[in-house]
Write a structure and sequence with these properties.
Layout: E1 2-7, E2 10-15, E3 18-22, E4 35-37, E5 52-54, H1 65-68, E6 77-80, H2 86-93, E7 98-101, E8 107-110, E9 113-119, H3 125-128, E10 148-153, E11 158-161, H4 167-180, E12 186-190, H5 206-231, E13 235-239, E14 243-245, H6 261-271, E15 277-278, E16 286-288, E17 293-294, H7 303-312, H8 328-349, E18 356-360, E19 366-369, E20 376-377, E21 386-390, H9 393-401, H10 408-413, E22 418-422, H11 428-434
Parallel strand pairs: 3-5, 5-6, 6-7, 11-12, 12-13, 13-15, 18-21
Antiparallel strand pairs: 1-2, 1-16, 2-3, 4-14, 8-9, 9-10, 10-11, 16-17, 18-19, 19-20, 21-22
């Protein structure tokens, strides 16, 4: 059995002579153009050899449309049998055959190998540092399965891929996995949060932002430590989260609250209370389960290298840059047409906060609304009781047209939404309803 690291959470796992490509994001410019890999993938996407694809969930760094356009549509795509079918429909719309697997039921891959896919227990944006709910189906904040983790085994060795599942959302699933697989040879574990906080939020000063970034880093390192302690794998590899913001959002990289891979590994090793070998793989390199050796040592890119790469992308366009501007009046009409859906979602979940949402484009357009009252032009900002969101007007046009054009959650994760909150509190209902703000 062998695993080859590609990018972020994209791996090639060989088991029983079968090669599984996991969560393929292998091209630059996801999340409407702002997410980049560094270092770049050392091989061409078209040269990859695989027999099936596993997709854990809907986010573009796991289900990358730009990558899927270059993948072989004859290869089956394995996903969890989620109650809601938006993941399945999205993959099928790109011309792929989807195989849905029941929760935790082994699927024969051939050659004595199998895969089990488990849905995370529930979704809570506060645990993953995202603010706008991912699921268009959540009602009254009932727990909603969004992400999944997977176990791949060849009968001798076993890999647990935790993807983006925070530990607290997967606790009972992990207990079930451990009962079925007492020995986990390798656990792939996340170490960072990809949400908009703190880089997209207004702070009183840089010290406050740096402190928030440090708290975020500590939160996710602690989650990784709890994962390793609970699973007690023979080895673990921190993965995912290895993106940088490119284009005009590049200056935000320094405050994302994401440690380097090498730092993450060191902090996890220092925090765990069990014996487990931690290691890292460079892009394109492998770990062999038989010899327990890596094909090449990991080298942390120097900060100057990363900065130079980010600077080289500064002029790169975003996906929405060529959207034709409809003008202020039409933009206000679109926001007004989208508000009834927002208000209906608020009624559905019992959200009746008076907090106003102020939407700005950074170039003069500003309108405010709440859970009951539709948009009104903003003449002067209130002193308190608002959440101000600044977004490029071309992206705003796409967001208001609906998820087929752009999704609020993806725009947020891509750092395209910039927030100012007074008071600085998190109202989950407000952000959840925002995902319904479209026609």
């Amino acid at each position: 059995m062998k695993i080859t690291h590609l990018q972020s959470s994209s791996e090639l796992i060989e088991a029983g002579g079968v090669r599984i490509l996991t969560d393929p994001w292998l091209v630059q410019g996801e999340y409407y153009g702002s997410w980049y890999h560094y270092p770049p993938l050392p091989m061409d996407v078209d040269s990859l050899d695989y027999d099936a694809i596993y997709v854990s969930h809907i986010h573009p760094d796991h289900l990358s449309r730009k990558t899927f356009q270059r993948l072989d549509r004859r290869k089956p795509v394995l996903i969890h049998r989620f109650e809601e079918k938006f993941l399945k429909r999205n993959i099928e719309a790109m011309g792929f055959t989807v195989v849905e697997l029941d929760h935790g039921v082994p699927h024969d891959l051939g050659g004595g190998a199998s895969i089990e896919i488990y849905a995370a227990d529930n979704c809570d944006p506060e645990l993953c540092a995202k603010f706008i709910g991912c699921a268009p189906v959540e009602s009254a904040f009932r727990f909603t399965q969004i992400d999944s983790l997977a176990v791949i085994t060849d009968g001798t060795h076993t890999v647990l891929n935790t993807n983006d599942c925070p530990f607290d959302l997967s606790r009972t699933v992990i207990e079930r996995v451990k009962r079925r697989h007492p020995v986990i040879d390798l656990m792939l574990v996340g170490y960072a949060g990809a949400g908009p906080y703190p880089q997209c939020f207004t702070f009183a000063d840089d010290a406050g932002r740096r402190a928030a970034a440090a708290r975020k880093e500590a939160q996710f390192i602690a989650q990784a430590v709890r994962y390793v302690d609970a699973v007690q794998p023979r080895a673990f590899m921190p993965f995912a989260g290895t993106y940088v913001l490119g284009g005009r959002l590049g200056p935000l990289n320094g405050t994302r609250g994401v440690p380097s891979l090498a730092e993450a590994l060191a902090r996890i090793e220092a925090g765990i209370s069990v014996e487990s070998r931690g290691f890292l793989l460079p892009a394109g390199e492998s770990f062999d389960f038989g010899s327990e050796e890596v094909s090449a040592a990991y080298r942390e890119p120097a900060a100057e290298e990363v900065a130079a790469f980010v600077a080289s992308t500064a002029g790169a366009p975003y996906d929405y840059d060529d959207v034709e501007d409809v003008g202020d009046a039409a933009l206000f009409d679109a926001l007004s047409a989208a508000h009834p859906r927002f208000a209906a979602k608020a009624r559905d979940i019992g959200f009746d906060s008076p907090t106003r949402i102020v939407v700005r484009d950074g170039n003069g357009f500003a309108a405010a609304f709440d859970a009951v009252n539709g948009p009104e032009p903003v003449e002067a900002m209130p002193e308190a009781g608002f959440v101000e969101i600044t977004v490029d007007r071309r992206l705003l046009q796409q967001l208001l047209k609906g998820p087929r054009f752009a999704h609020w959650n993806n725009a947020e994760i891509g750092s395209h939404l910039h927030y100012r909150r007074v008071p600085d509190t998190f109202e989950r209902g407000l952000y959840y309803c925002l995902s319904a703000l479209h026609v």
